[in-house]
Amino acid sequence: MKKDYEAFVEELRQELITATGYDKSRIYFKREEEYPQTPGDRIFVECSVGEYSREVCGLFAWDLYQCYLDGILINDIVQRTVKDLKRMERSGILQTAQYLDDYEKIKPNLFVRLLNLDKNRGELKNSVFFSIGDIAMALYVRMGKFDDVVSSFKVKKDMVERWDRRQEEVFADALQNTSCITPPRIFQWEKLVFEPDYRGDDFMDTLTDFPLKKDAAGNCLSTEERTNGAVAVFLPGVAKRLSDLMGSGFYMVFTSIHEVMIHNDKEAEVERLRSVLIDTLREATPEDEVLTLNIYHYSRDTGKFSWK
């Protein structure tokens, strides 16, 4: 005879306590309407507990109950759950969570991602970021990789306060990390088409004279992974290096959050670039990957960014 929902939840909870060896206080049931409200009843498992933080996994209790009614044994549900928890542990996510209060240990996992400031003001509230025009340079912590997807979250201001560090110092470390984790690269279109393993060309070696295009066609700048690669132009030394190779200042056309086109400011016209940007965003860029409609400029004389 099948158990009712409440009996199923309690037995599953007790079996999880036994299988994980966790204290019973770390595995608990919460109904959807209980504060704070959650989308569905959950069985929460506190996988990692620190002084100021904890890593919590939430299981959808009603969905698991439906699996049970369909004939899956409670023991099988427990084994699958424990297996997933162990996979998370191997991913490094839980270990990183334990270090969130230790700046020196968490520092190598800091990185910067670009977001549109106006569209993301709500989620940026209380987060650490610096703005350049309508671009937000947001500070993130890399937690680990789970099922080939990198897990990360925005750094909150109170975390920086607990680290007893200035935001500028933390941000500088994050920019340097971003450059190491995902090095800036120039991508040539013909290589992108014909070389499947192509990961861009390294132009940052000051001992070589990289053949940057100086005409109006421009150069595609991203990072080695080509994910969230538009940040490359703001990484340490990149803008100056591009300007030196170009022999002039340059315009930046952010065709998405993943790349930015670099154009010689002596050859390109702002309004022409803006027209091309609008067409590109409309035809080829998903809405959630649009970064800005503005054309940005780097001055070789002042070393500063501006936007129109």
What does this structure look like?
The chain is built from eleven helices and 13 strands. By secondary structure, it is α+β, with helices and mostly antiparallel strands. It has three domains: 5-98; 103-176, no CATH class; 184-307, no CATH class. Strand 2 and strand 3 (54-60) form a beta hairpin. The longest helix has 18 residues, at 74-91.
Helix content: 25-40%
Choose one word for the global shape. Answer: elongated
N-to-C SSE string, H for helix and E for strand:
HEEEHHHHEHEEEHHEHEHEEHEE
Strand order of the largest sheet: 8-9-11-10-12-13
Low-confidence stretches are none
Structural class: alpha+beta
Strand content: 15-25%
Sum up the structure in keywords:
alpha+beta, single chain, 308 residues
